[in-house]
Amino acid sequence: MKAVVAGGGVGGLITALLMKKNGFHVTIFEKSSKLGGRLSYVKEGEFKIDEGPTIVLLPLMLQSILNEAGISDEEYELISLNPLYKLHFSDGSTYTKYSDFEKQLGELKSNFPGQESGFIRFMKDMDIRFRLGKEQFLEKTFVNRKSFWTRMNVQTLMKLKAYRSVSQSLKPYFTDERLRQAYSLQTLYIGGNPYDSPAMYSLVSYSEHKHGVYYLKGGYAKLAEVLERALLKAGVEIHKNALVQSIESEGIKAKGIHVNGEFHEADYVVLNGDFPSVTHMLEPHIQKKEYIPSSGCLLLYLGLDKIYEEANVHQFYMGADFQKHMKEIFVTKEVPEDPSIYAFHPSVIDPSLAPEGKSVLYALIPVPSGNHIDWDAQSGFIDQIIEKLEEKGFPGLREHIVWKKVKTPNDAKREGLFEGGSFGLAPVLFQSGVFRPQVKPSKLDNVYAAGASIHPGGGIPLVMQGAKMMVDVLMEDVNKQNGVSLNGKVERSVRTM
Hints:
The protein is built from 14 helices and 19 strands. It has helices at 10-21, 59-68, 101-111, 116-138, 151-159, 166-169, 177-182, 203-211, 222-234, 322-330, 379-392, 397-400, 409-414, 460-481, and strands at residues 2-6, 25-29, 41-44, 47-50, 78-80, 85-88, 94-97, 214-216, 237-239, 244-250, 253-259, 262-265, 268-271, 296-304, 314-317, 341-344, 359-367, 401-407, 447-449. It is globular. InterPro entries: Amino_oxidase (IPR002937), Carotenoid/retinoid_OxRdtase (IPR014105), FAD/NAD-bd_sf (IPR036188).
């Protein structure tokens, strides 16, 4: 059986490996000159740094899926970070997060006395909710949307407080606004507003403590290289600079795809582009829908002539008014006046990213998606960011910069990301779970989808989990067509943790 994968992002690569393992002849068509999608490097001479994702979460899920795809733990190295990261607030106070429970209580006692009991209750409650949410939502697809509306799922939604925002859900646990920020900003990892994203996403901050925060040696983009080697070894055919233009169908069956003006026949088609940007290929077999994009990012990539040894791998510098910053991103959609900043300085533990004695630094500022802002005219804003980094954690930064590159939402949109949003669809309630595009996104029987905008959502481990579930659904469809009896249903669990 022939399968074509339109797009070489991490979802497409995992899909290809798993389908090859199931006996398919698999061909990947990637429009750019490299595989990996958001998993990519920015390079300048001997400097290199991750272009997109940097924070490795849910390590057991990631490792389990890689193992199933034929990649051993020895082919890459995950480094556990402790502390996880440090937050710096505008009033000069700080909060360091740890994976060690007792150490975290000590940090709270020192810097936020009286908040310890709230943290204990938070972890206890989230432990229960994580198990519920994982089983009911992260490990199931909802190809048949009606199958979602069971009494158990509705009860789970209520227990997960899906009707409340992440920020609201933290009020019973933390009375200090700074801690509410510290445990709600994680929605920004997937481009969501903590004052709007449903409370189930508060499980991300819980998972950081419970499962740890990791760094992939060589950078997260190293994973794309590992996957490409595995694909070539497995015999998957790869075509780069190959733009998939359309799907040719007959009735409710796709016959193949058109790539750079040529037709390629296929028994199964998998779409791995940012979903709202590829829906035109599914018309008229899909209902038109308006989607909400995730937030955009202003990204600064810096090469430095020194290493800031006292820095953490990850740190956050919070603006004076976090809620105002979120409003500027998601409501008024303007350049933030006093933004919060995430800084990534992997050279403190990884010397492979820069020449000896030198380093790389990555700064991410959440900004509005869309192309209505002229970022070329925002040099003053970029100077403001560098000044804040210099003041808060990287003294003398300007004089140590030997290389700088800036990436904006306009660049992201040109690369094919929906409305320049960096994380696919925004994680609002009606774009989550059953309401999110599913692994079978249209009425075409043999067309499937994987990626950040497909259930279960964004973040590298979840995209990989979505690809795994997609292949599981596809194989059940194959078995049905071949008259093989099935154990379970299409929405059955796909366990990875």
